[in-house]
Give the backbone structure.
Amino acid sequence: MRIFSGIQPTGRKHLGNYIGAISQYVDLQEQGDPAIYCVVDLHAITVKYDPAELRERLYDTTAILLASGLDPEDCILFRQSDVPEHTELTWLLAGTATSHGDLNRMHQFKEKSVKQRELVSAGLFFYPALMAADILAYNADLVPVGDDQRQHLELARQIATNFNNRFGDTFTVPEWRIPEVGARIMDLKNPDQKMSTTSDNPAGTVYVLEDPKAIEKKFKSATTDSGSEVRRALDKPGISNLIEILSVVSGRSMEQVEADFEGQQYGSFKVAVAEAVIEYLRPVQEKYSELRADEAALEAALGAGAEKASAIAGPIVAAARDKMGLGRPVA
Ligand code: AQP
């Protein structure tokens, strides 16, 4: 089973990214044939960014992935812009298998485009086509992602199907893997919205590398409701989110968490969630600094990963090009 997923080089990454995506990457790396993980810097340029900062954040993200347990011996870890097949295949798919109407329906584009103060780039609109190319260039069977990527994955499946119908069987139609618990970690301050890098209120987002005292403060001030029972309910999004977080980080079921905190106040429950999250993130935080300090080693790991990734993507994209009647015919 070939596994592929991508993560943006937004530096510190948050608890939602960690639970929804990174922990899945680590769990799956030995099952992949191979597991391929890509730091998607080409996606990051679709909103305003600073070039020097982008490189720094890419190293931060790579070091977080390695500190979380990704092992370049067990998986392929690389930088998207090192493998030109991603950009080439985006155009091949955009030109022949991607409908403008489908791109127009994407929630993420609608949400992100209204937040842009200057240019709303065509690249932001094309983001899902690039994501489809990322996945299809490796003929991935399985894509581990958080719930917010469901719509983009559906479109990637549609694009693969459209291409195959028009040019003959070329791409694997990928399945997604969205965790049952922790697929959509919500913002601590505004639990009706997902925890996000670009949230308006920094108090709602917990970062993987955040100082334990700051993590504790954020959980203590998390928005809850006027009730007092630690149990899930539609009208209790804040408490439901905290129950889900504690379930994942402590390895207990959500029912067990509710039973363990029956009769307890919200205040003591929030402190317990904070402590469990701090312990959950501690091993990553301890390993991160040493890995981040050695940029040459990070570059070497990414370079070796890119060579392995190119070796897989090259023939797949060449076959697509050939079926489309482009370039010199493949013998
Ligand atoms: N809140 C979340 N809960 C669970 N999973 C999540 N993911 C993102 N947010 C949550 C999953 O993390 C992976 C990487 O996402 P990304 O590369 O888009 O990372 P990002 O840009 O740093 O994260 P955000 O917060 O998603 O970005 P913005 O603020 O731009 O909206 C994906 O698998 C995603 O599903």
Notes: The pocket of adenosine-5'-tetraphosphate is lined by residues 7-8, 10, 13, 16-17, 19-21, 145-146, 148-149, 183-185, 194-198 (CB under 6 Å). The first strand starts at residue 3 and ends at 7.
